[in-house]
């Protein structure tokens, strides 16, 4: 018996070993089963088996030897790892039959379909990564069955629904990565059960909402918490302080409120704290000073207040601090001098006072120092010159005093310096111009004196130099010609003398040259004609003499040429007619003589102004002046010009004409423009029939002299008749008044309006219709729009003319304003609009034909716009014009900005529209924009912009937020409304759009997405446009974001908005980008969104420092440029 046992045991052992090693035994069967599962999944695309998966399914190969497959020691499939292969397959089915599958990674493979419930049967699974695919549907509840799961990576798909509470059963889970999906709902409290969790990233799910559960504090091993770009709200739970291993807290662009809990100071391992773009309140807790490992502190654009605690200076590993766009007060802590590793310090747009502490010079690694838009006073510390790595120094819009320290020349890496709008005195340090990397120097509006040092020629990288508004004297140094990269040079409003150096012609890249308002003399150098890229040349208000160089005709790209208010003499060179891009030509107030060259009348682009006034010009006006069909303003007054004015009759686009004080003779052309000219614009021409009578207007030039003599004879007869007629009209007036009193109190206003009350008509143009013609058109079938001040009709007058008529709502009239006291000044829609429209002339403002009224009805008549309103084009269903190309949208945005800038800055007193919206921007035949509907407009006297209004001003969705609590309307309210319109044009969505989730306003919706830096906010029809156009759109978006700033004082003026928009196309050099985009702190790629949105913040925030010119351009990828630096380059 014992012998038999010993005999059988070796045989049994041999059998077991042989079975395990036999390739034809049981293991082979298991392997074939697993292999068939794998092949059946990939085999749905046969082409894959012959390419990427070519060695799958071969008879002589085991699954363990296949690509992408790992096996355990027993030969069972334990891992599948497929990355960045275009599979186009559904989530694998049947993998539950792989009993030892511990890791399933199929990432970036365009998996489709849903994650099936079957995934809960993958019992051994420890890693599930199906990120960056096209998976749909919800995360299955069955995921909770995976008790061994350690990593669940589902980011960058199209998953919907909420995070299942069952996930709390995955007690071994260490990584939960869900960012960049479409998940909704609140964070489940069951997350608190995941005590082993190290990484939780659910950012980029914009519909995740609700509070952060306090139970999150139970995840004691958590190292990364990312909930950026979501709607999580409420306060940060105090339990966050229990996360002692937390390294990254990333909850930016969300809806957090309340104060930052002091318990956050217990997170001793914290390295990155990103809480920007929320609504956090209160002061920064001093306990932040306990975070000794903290490297990045970004809490910009919140509502934080109070002083910056000195304790933050104890965070000795800090590299980036951005507290900009808050309400922080107090001084800059001196303890910051201990932050020796600090690279970026951004405190812009706060209420910080005191001086710049000299101890900041201890931070020798400092790259960016942005202190602009505060109340900082005192001198600039000379110790800052020790910061050899500093690339950006912004301190504009403060109260700095003293001189610019010469020691700043030690900042050898400096690329951008902006100290504008302070009270800086002293002279320009010569060493400042020896900074070889400096690209931008802006010292606008200070009290700097002394000369420009000749060392300026050594500043070889300089692109933009603006010294406007100082007291700089002496000559322009000839060394300026060494600046071969200079694009923008503005030395205006100083005390410069001498002549313009001939060497300036060497600045071949120059696009803008402004030397106006100095006391420069000499002649214009011929070298100016070599500036082939120049677009703006302004030397007005100087003492320049001599003739205008004929070579200026070589400036084919110049669009604005202003030589006015000088001592120039001689003829106007005919070569100027070759400046084919010219939009504005200003030669007024010189001593120019001779005739007006006909070549000027061939400037097809001349659409803004031609001003030749106050010279000694002679001759007649050539009929070719009719070629200036786009011209808006023409002034030839105060010259010695003669002949008739018939040549002007074809200038249909003119809104302003002045021919006074010349030798013009004859009759006036019978056009709209001449009908509305004032006596002042015609006076001083002895031979001109300029009385406001019908006899002065003619439609042809035949026998003008004879007609004029007839008119003189008839004048005496007319005067006699006029006396008799006046007496007769007086009697009629008495009868009318008596009748009016008899019918007072009756209200029989019809749809046509007016009932039995008599009508008054005041034309502002020549009209060929009567009140009766207009009234017949005021029917419901002709209504084309309704606004807050009235209803608009399309009036076909039957004679070929079509006009637009606005009938003001009865409630907008004032009882005291009757037909018999029509000269009374009252504040109703009629008087406001009449007064406004009668005083303005601009190519982007609707033309006003006239008005008519009686006791109960007010009618305003405009030129009809057949394309309707911008709102109709953008949003009306079935409208084929809605797919506007970007070029047309840009022109509409720019034109509307220029029209609004005219109201704010060129009208005296300024005019606030108060109801800017898409429906109040009309579109002409060539899709040119016209601002309309001035029913709520106010002329603002003597700085009265902030007067409260007891009338609701504006339209829903466009009203600036400050109106809700102050009831005050300013020009900045118009800027906000305009910004909403721009967002509307860019996105194709209405301010309150049904396609925007949760009823968000378009401003909030764009803010949440715009920071991700991609084109998803743009109208879908625009997203496929060329990259160059996308760049323009995104820069325009940056301007819009400036305009809708919640703080009125932080919004730009409309003249700056118009300038920024024009520079987007006019200035292609990199220097212009800072004007529009320095405020934008947005990631620019999907990877950035993943990093930031996902919560780690690492990829988004750890970028190396870029050159300053890249920091100031949209799409640079740098997210630490201060948002307050938006207008530093204006």
From TrEMBL:
PROSITE patterns in the cross-refs: LRR (PS51450), PROTEIN_KINASE_ATP (PS00107), PROTEIN_KINASE_DOM (PS50011), PROTEIN_KINASE_ST (PS00108)
Keyword rRNA-binding: no
GO molecular function terms listed in the Swiss-Prot or TrEMBL record: ATP binding; peptide binding; peptide receptor activity; protein serine/threonine kinase activity
Name of the protein in question: Protein kinase domain-containing protein
SMART domains assigned: LRR_TYP, S_TKc
One family name in Pfam for this protein: LRR_8
Membrane topology: Single-pass type I membrane protein
Transmembrane segment boundaries: 717-738
Ranges of residues in domain Protein kinase: 778-1064
Main subcellular location of this protein, as a coarse class: membrane
Keywords per UniProt: ATP-binding, Cell membrane, Disulfide bond, Glycoprotein, Kinase, Leucine-rich repeat, Membrane, Nucleotide-binding, Phosphoprotein, Receptor, Repeat, Serine/threonine-protein kinase, Signal, Transferase, Transmembrane, Transmembrane helix, Ubl conjugation
Compositionally biased region (Low complexity): 1116-1130
Organism name: Kalanchoe fedtschenkoi (Lavender scallops)
Entries under Gene3D superfamilies matching the protein: Phosphorylase Kinase, domain 1 (3.30.200.20), Ribonuclease Inhibitor (3.80.10.10), Transferase(Phosphotransferase) domain 1 (1.10.510.10)
Top-level taxonomy: Eukaryota, Viridiplantae, Streptophyta, Embryophyta, Tracheophyta
GO terms under biological process: maintenance of root meristem identity; regulation of root development; regulation of root meristem growth
Binding site for ATP: 807
């Amino acid at each position: 018996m014992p012998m038999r046992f010993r005999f059988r045991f070796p045989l049994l052992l041999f059998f077991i070993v042989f079975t395990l090693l036999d390739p034809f035994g049981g293991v082979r069967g298991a392997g074939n089963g697993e292999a068939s599962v794998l092949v059946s999944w990939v085999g749905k695309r046969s082409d894959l088996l012959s390419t990427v998966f070519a060695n799958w399914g071969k008879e002589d190969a085991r699954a363990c030897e296949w690509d992408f497959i790992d096996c355990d020691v027993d030969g069972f499939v334990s891992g599948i790892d497929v990355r960045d292969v275009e599979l186009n397959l559904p989530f694998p089915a049947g993998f539950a039959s792989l009993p030892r599958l511990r890791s399933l990674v199929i990432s970036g493979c365009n998996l489709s379909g849903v994650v099936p419930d079957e995934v809960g049967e993958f019992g051994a699974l420890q890693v599930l990564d199906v990120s960056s695919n096209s998976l749909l549907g919800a995360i299955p509840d069955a995921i909770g069955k995976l008790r061994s799961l350690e990593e669940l990576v589902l980011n960058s798909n199209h998953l919907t629904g909420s995070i299942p509470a069952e996930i709390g059963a995955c007690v071994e889970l260490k990584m939960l990565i869900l960012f960049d999906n479409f998940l909704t709902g609140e964070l489940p409290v069951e997350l608190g059960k995941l005590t082993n969790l190290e990484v939780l990233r659910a950012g980029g799910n914009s519909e995740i909402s609700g509070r952060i559960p306090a139970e999150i504090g139970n995840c004691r091993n958590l190292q990364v918490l990312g909930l950026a770009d979501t709607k999580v709200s409420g306060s940060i739970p105090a339990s966050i302080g229990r996360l002692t291993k937390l390294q990254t807290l990333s909850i930016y662009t969300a809806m957090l409120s309340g104060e930052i809990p002091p318990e956050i100071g217990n997170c001793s391992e914290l390295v990155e704290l990103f809480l920007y773009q929320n609504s956090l309140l209160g002061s920064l807790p001093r306990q932040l000073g306990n975070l000794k490992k903290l490297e990045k502190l970004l809490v910009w654009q919140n509502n934080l207040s109070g002083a910056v605690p000195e304790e933050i200076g104890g965070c000795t590993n800090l590299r980036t601090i951005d507290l900009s766009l808050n309400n922080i007060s107090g001084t800059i802590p001196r303890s910051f001098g201990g932050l020796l590793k600090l690279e970026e310090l951004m405190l812009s747009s706060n209420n910080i006072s005191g001086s710049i502490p000299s101890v900041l010079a201890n931070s020798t690694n400092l790259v960016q120092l942005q202190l602009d838009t505060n109340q900082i006073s005192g001198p600039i510390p000379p110790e800052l010159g020790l910061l050899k790595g500093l690339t950006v120094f912004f301190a504009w819009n403060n109260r700095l005093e003293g001189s610019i320290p010469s020691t700043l020349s030690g900042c050898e890496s400096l690329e951008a310096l902006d100290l504008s709008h302070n009270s800086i005195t002293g002279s320009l340090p010569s060493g400042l111009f020896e900074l070889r990397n400096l690209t931008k120097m802006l010292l606008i509006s200070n009290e700097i004196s002394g000369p420009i040092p000749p060392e300026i020629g050594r500043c070889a990288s300089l692109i933009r130099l603006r010294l406007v508004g100082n007291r700089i004297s002496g000559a322009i140094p000839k060394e300026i010609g060494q600046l071969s990269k200079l694009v923008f040079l503005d030395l205006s409003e100083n005390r410069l003398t001498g002549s313009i150096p001939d060497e300036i012609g060497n600045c071949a890249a120059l696009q803008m040259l402004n030397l106006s308002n100095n006391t420069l003399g000499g002649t214009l150098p011929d070298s100016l004609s070599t500036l082939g890229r120049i677009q703006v040349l302004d030397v007005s208000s100087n003492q320049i003499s001599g003739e205008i160089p004929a070579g200026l005709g070589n400036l084919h790209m110049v669009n604005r040429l202003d030589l006015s208010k000088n001592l120039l003499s001689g003829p106007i060179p005919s070569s100027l007619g070759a400046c084919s891009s010219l939009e504005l030509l200003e030669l007024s107030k010189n001593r120019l003589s001779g005739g007006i060259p006909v070549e000027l009348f061939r400037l097809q682009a001349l659409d803004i102004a031609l001003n030749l006034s106050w010279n000694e010009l002679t001759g007649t006006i050539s009929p070719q002046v009719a070629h200036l069909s786009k011209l808006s303003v023409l002034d030839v007054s105060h010259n010695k010009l003669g002949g008739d004015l018939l040549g002007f009759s074809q200038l249909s686009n003119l809104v302003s004409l002045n021919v006074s004080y010349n030798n013009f003779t004859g009759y006036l052309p019978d056009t709209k423009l001449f009908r509305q000219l004032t006596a002042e614009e015609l006076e001083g021409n002895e031979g001109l029939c300029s009385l406001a009578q019908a006899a002065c207007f003619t439609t042809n030039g035949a026998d003008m002299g004879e007609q004029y003599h007839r008119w003189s004879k008839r004048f005496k007869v007319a005067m006699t008749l006029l006396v008799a007629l006046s007496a007769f009209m007086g009697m009629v007036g008495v009868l009318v008044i008596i009748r009016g009193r008899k019918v007072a109190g009756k209200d029989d206003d019809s749809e046509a309006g007016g009932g039995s009350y008599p009508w008054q008509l005041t034309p502002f143009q020549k009209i060929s219709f009567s009140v009766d013609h207009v009234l017949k058109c005021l029917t419901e079938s002709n209504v084309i729009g309704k606004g807050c001040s009235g209803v608009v009709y399309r009036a076909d007058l039957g004679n070929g003319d079509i006009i637009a008529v606005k009938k003001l709502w009865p409630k907008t009239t004032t009882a005291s304003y009757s037909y018999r006291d029509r000269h009374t000044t009252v504040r109703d829609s009629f008087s406001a609009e009449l007064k406004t429209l009668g005083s303005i002339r601009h190519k982007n403002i609707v033309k006003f034909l006239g008005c008519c009224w009686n006791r109960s009805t007010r009618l305003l008549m405009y030129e009809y716009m057949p394309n309707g309103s911008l709102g109709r084009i953008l949003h009306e269903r079935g409208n084929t014009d809605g797919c506007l190309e970007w070029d047309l949208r840009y022109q509409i945005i720019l034109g509307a900005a220029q029209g609004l800038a005219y109201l704010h800055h060129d009208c005296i007193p300024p005019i606030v529209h108060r109801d800017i919206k898409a429906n109040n921007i009309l579109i002409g035949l060539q899709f040119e924009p016209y601002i309309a509907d001035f029913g709520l407009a106010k002329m603002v006297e003597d700085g009265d912009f902030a007067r409260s209004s007891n009338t609701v001003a504006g339209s829903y969705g466009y009203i600036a937020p400050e109106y809700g609590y102050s009831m005050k309307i300013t020009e900045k309210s118009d800027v906000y409304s305009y910004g909403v319109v721009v967002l509307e044009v860019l996105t194709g969505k209405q301010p309150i759009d049904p396609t925007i989730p949760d009823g968000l306003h378009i401003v909030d919706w764009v803010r949440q997405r715009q920071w991700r830096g991609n084109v998803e906010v743009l109208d879908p029809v625009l997203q496929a446009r060329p990259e160059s156009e996308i760049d323009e759109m995104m820069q325009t978006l940056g301007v819009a974001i400036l305009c809708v700033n919640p703080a009125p004082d932080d919004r730009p003026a409309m003249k700056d908005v118009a300038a920024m928009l024009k520079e987007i196309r006019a200035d292609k050099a990199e220097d212009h980008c800072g004007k529009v985009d320095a405020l934008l702190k947005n990631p620019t790629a999907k990877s950035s969104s993943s990093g930031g949105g996902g919560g780690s913040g690492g990829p988004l925030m750890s970028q190396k420092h870029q050159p300053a010119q890249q920091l100031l351009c949209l799409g640079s990828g740098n997210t630490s440029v201060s948002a307050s630096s938006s207008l530093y380059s204006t």
